[in-house]
Fold these 3 entries.
Entry 1:
Amino acid sequence: MRYETVIGLEVHVELATNSKIFCSCSAHSFGADPNSHVCPACCGMPGMLPVVNKRVVDFGMKAGLMLNCDINRTTTFDKKSYYYPDLPAAYQTTQWFAPVAVNGVVEIETSKGKKKVRIKQIHMEEDAGKLVHDIREDTTHVDFNRTSVPLIEIVSQPDLSSAEEVEAYLERLKTLLRYAKVAECEMAHGTMRCDVNLSVRPEGSDKLGVRAEMKNMNSIEAIKRAIEYETARHIDAIENGTEVLRQETRRWDDIKGKSYAMRTKETAGDYRYFPDPNVMPVVIDDAWFNEIKSSLPEFPEVKRARYTEEYALSDYDAEQLTKSIALCECFEGAFEVTKNAKDSANWILSEVMTILNARKMTYDQLTLDGRALGTLILLVTGGKVGRANAKKILAAMFDDPTIEPEKYAEENGFVMSNDTGKAEAVIKAVIAADPKSVADFKGGKEKALMALFGKCMKELKGNCDPQTLRKLLIDEINKA
Ligand SMILES: [Zn+2]
């Protein structure tokens, strides 16, 4: 019998707001001392009064609209009760009855073509703290810096059916949320986390099989491996009776490449959801809704089409640039200055990419000012700075975003010289010092010319037009 895998995802995304969801503590405590970013509200002290951070609702709405959801114009917060040492109030404030966004859809593309994945809902909630286990002292410490850091949970319908689709879906979420600048979505940093609900059923059946929920996955590769392992485990159980499948929560051990049962899956009733009386309902009026709607970016596909039509870029260039909003902004800034789309795209897709790769930076970490890049490009096309030196200036601009390319070129001796007298003097000295290369070139060895050319260019610190230098050099050799 043939089987199909049915997968739904719950994706937690940390929102990139400055402060926490219900208090003014900083939401960014990376590297900070434990429990240094806390107050009575985020520590769940009795009597504390949480106040909803408006930016969190802004971002929740933006995420909802990017994923084609309907926005609940009155959205409310609820208590999800459970006990765990990293949850000081013994309940998490989340959204159950009226989440900020519902009924969305995201289109993905895989080797099998395009597919629509329905979004059940997006709800806003607070993160829990962190338990830090100290093996040497045989103790566990609790750090509340992360409590009440704002999250959204994006719940999909069970519309996914393979590891490839899951990967495409996660990539799509990442792109859309990064375009809207609401989240970093970096699994390696913990700003995107994913629970996978998976079951297996005979192909063509419309009945769902027994569902397992897998937690504890922190990379797309781990998620893909876990899906393949679980699919095989379920099929084996159904076909060969190796075990009785239960609805349960499982932990994925990426090192062993296996999943283990943690607990039988809780039902909603176990959490005693009820409206949080301390948090007022949030009413989104037309003005607020429209403000958020008009602040949304162009969708990647719309941008891509515009880049090929308006700027006459190739499909490939447009696709590469629109992979990240940071690349798009850099390109659009550079174009404003150069008015030359091809040059602007080429510089980003070659020189800028080279530096990003060498520094192991993601596209979204690019902070280079597009207009400054445009100025640098004009210095090169205008013959003021040589390409090799322009690359050095570009690297410096990565380190210091305040650098003005023209000023920097002047201050650091990167301006091309039109002084042929200076070039000729250098050429004469180089020729005199290397009669062998001169003789080799005269004897027909083209490579010898490149050696001489390289020495001259080095002496001139790259500040000479290569065509001119080459011509002067050949003239001088012929005279010798
Ligand atoms: Zn706080």
Note: The mean pLDDT is 93.
Entry 2:
Amino acid sequence: MRNFEARNQHFDALVNEPDLMWLGQNTNHFKPHPSVVKAMLDSINAEEFHAYAPPAGLEELRSLILQDLGLKAENASVLVTDGAVEALYTTCRDLCEPGVNFVTTDPGWKWPMAFAKASGATTIEIPIYKPENGYKLTVAQLESAVNEKTRIIYLVDPNNPLGTCHTEQEIKAFTEIARRHKAYFLHDCTYRHFADGHSLAAQFYPERTITIYSFSKWLGLAGMRIGALVAHPDVVERLAGAPPNNLGSNIVSQRAAIAGLKIRDEWFPEINRRQRRNQAEIVRAALQVPGLKVVNYPSQANLIVMECIEAGITPEALCQAYRQEGIMIRQGSYHTTAFGHRFVKVSTTVPEEWADAFCRLLPAMVEKARVLKQVTNLY
Ligand SMILES: Cc1ncc(COP(=O)(O)O)c(C=O)c1O
């Protein structure tokens, strides 16, 4: 069977498994705010879906996104996309070409690397799985990886999977490097709402920062495919010229996103408190199993990395053991070939019962992972 067919069947089985506990994709499974659901139902009942939405997104949504980021319309414009991933695709495909470099971290999110490569760029991954650097990219590392060939610096911040987040000082220093080499700074802020504090590169380098925004994680709309890119109007003018979807993103999703932004201040703090509570329980459970270790706590994203290498088991075996109990967690190799054999990633925006089930089963799953004979392919 071809790889894409096998991958599809894997995810098809997951979405068709009733009661699956989704602790692997950082999606948000808490109950949504009623006004978000109502906005979707109202849109469907009004049959808004017959028409195409405006190509750059509903104006109300565009201005609410800017407001959420605290950026000013003079030097920031919004292009609504089919999820953050489409924003990343458009950016990487449009700005990369043969002869240029795309610089990112390892681990990080791999798909934009595939997009940059598809446009002919050379990709450079800077290893950041280093306790001595707090599992973060350093200014010195970036300085030595960037040169006149660098077209894009791609930073996932907070990082998926590490949950580390950069300080304002670090972000400022990164943007100074980018500016000196006229590189675009692709700041993937998909997880920013979960951080205790987050600084936007756009405030230091508005002319060539592209901020990536997602509604999948904080608002829980992953299946609705809605996100955005935010950049200087000149940059958006270029990127809006030939996007993969020039007919407007899903209008039902846009109505949900608008409703979500309106209730964010009231709804989200409790969501974040609950996912941090889940993190704490997972750390407590991991500490009780010899060989398990949590890499960065508290994580600044809705996920936590648990090292299992010293427990003498593979991440894949642990994932499979859990899968047999109806729980999905993610193997590290999804994020990184160099360090993926060391850890699994557990997502925390889930009902407390799911997190508690993960914790309760942990000692038994580690033992089961030791004796699993055959581990099926994971994606
Ligand atoms: C770093 C990062 N960027 C983008 C995405 C995709 O976001 P969306 O669902 O909005 O396309 C993900 C999804 O896991 C991610 O981890």
Note: The chain has a mean pLDDT of 97.
Entry 3:
Amino acid sequence: MTAEQERESRLLERIQRGELVEEADQMTPEYRDNLIHLMLMEADSEIAGAFGYVPWIMKAPTPAEMLAVASITRDEVRHGRVVYKLLENLGVDVGDRVKQFDFTLRVEEKDFLGQGRAGQDERVNIFYYPIDRWSDFVLFNVLMDRGAGHQLEDVLQCSYGPWKRVMQGIMKEESMHIAHGDTWLRRLGRDPATHDELQEGLERWWPRIMNVFGRPKTRRNATYQKWGLKIRDNDAVRQAFVDDVSQVIAEAHLTMPTWTPDWNVVPEEGQAAG
Ligand SMILES: [Fe+2]
Ligand SMILES: [Fe+2]
């Protein structure tokens, strides 16, 4: 056994015993690379998400909602900052990164990315779509905050101690964002004046959110599971999300869109959600 193989089996045993990884010198290069990739995806998404919300502080329908949007935006910047700090501890040059990428970059509303990407940052690709209406902001809280919540649930059980610990506070705030979205979804969905616009928006955002979870049984997901960085397969997370969101969609008098994945289409690059 080479020194590298020995190191690898020591780390695997540690993870299988349920002991957390705490320090960089306990990692193998493969573990470190995968961990960094997942944390960059989260941190870049938090910041890109926050920047997409910024205009809605000014455009929110009431002063109470201006404050709600400002506070959600602040939460997202905080989440980004917390995860970037963990990345800095692993040697990532975060200052350089935020200078290098334009986190305000958005595609046109008509553009569909599928599992592709629009920029070089690591954000989950739904964060490339623009939020053009108040109902889009509401749908983003209902769908993406909830979808991220389901994805990040695995982090609460992951093998990297520092990430697992910050996730509890992040998840608490995400659940408030979801509740904000759900309240507005019911309000707009039950009002005949706004129902149809909301249904149209739901249908537009649905394939985008479905694509966030990635393809079933990917090699990459198997690697994440091996290292305890993810617990479930992409498809299981997607299904948990669909089961959860269907209730509020019904309560808002909306119709659940249909979605048929075509996994035969090979994405240009591995899907953001791995
Ligand atoms: Fe967040
Ligand atoms: Fe959020």
Note: The two ends are 31 Å apart (CA to CA).
